[in-house]
Design a protein that fits this description.
This protein has five helices and six strands, in the order αβααβββαβαβ. It is of the alpha/beta class. It has a single domain, classed as Uracil-DNA glycosylase-like domain (Uracil-DNA Glycosylase, subunit E, 3-Layer(aba) Sandwich). It has a four-stranded parallel sheet. Strands 3-4 form a two-stranded antiparallel sheet. Helix 5 links the parallel strand 5 and strand 6. The radius of gyration is 16 Å and the shape is globular. The protein starts with 14 loop residues before the first helix and ends in a 10-residue tail after the last strand. The structure holds iron/sulfur cluster (SF4).
């Protein structure tokens, strides 16, 4: 463990090693109230990487990214586009769920700049290991974090094309 709270990784980093190490990350305060780290999932070498803001309540409880309501929307979008989810990599800018209590519910709270910056350590490692050709940012936080120049992917060859857009809200048609 480094003095900044990042666990060490022995030897050459791999996705399984990074995922295992991130479980004990304490580099920002978010680990204290979350159930577990929710690291990205998908194959090394996936051509497309989807990046959201942070895990939600369901992701926090299961330990898997995009399995809650946002995951259902992503699955629908992938299906409509004819893309098998098994062939893409999905992750979040921040790997621990940030929330505030309201009664018995845990409400999503936006991560701040310190937390986002701290967790770029893991996002940059994922980018370096997966080397996607296309990066799809789901929401403003993902767009702003992912479009900053990566310290871990300095070469043009390893820099993916980025598609960053704010999520759209579906509205019922006016009658
Ligand atoms: S949010 Fe990221 S940087 Fe902060 S403790 Fe969790 S894994 Fe570490």
């Amino acid at each position: 463990m480094t003095d900044r709270g990042y666990p060490g990784i022995e030897g050459r980093p791999t996705l399984p090693k990074a995922r295992a190490a991130a479980k004990t990350c304490t580099a920002c305060d978010l680990h204290a109230r979350a159930t577990q780290t929710v690291f990205g999932e998908g194959a090394r070498g996936s051509q497309v990487m989807f990046v959201g803001e942070q895990p939600g309540d369901k992701e926090d409880l299961t330990g898997h990214p995009f399995v809650g309501p946002a995951g259902r929307i992503l699955d629908e979008a992938l299906e409509a586009a004819g893309i098998d989810r098994e062939t893409v990599y999905v992750t979040n800018v921040v790997k621990h769920f940030k929330w505030r209590p309201r009664g018995k519910r845990r409400l999503h709270e936006k991560p701040n700049a310190v937390e986002i910056t701290a967790c770029r350590f893991w996002l940059e490692m994922e980018l370096e290991l997966v080397k996607p050709e296309v990066l799809v940012c789901l929401g403003a936080t993902a767009a702003s974090s992912s479009t900053r120049r990566s310290r871990r992917t300095p070469s043009r060859r390893s820099t993916p094309r980025r598609s960053c857009a704010r999520p759209t809200t579906r509205r019922a048609p006016m009658r």
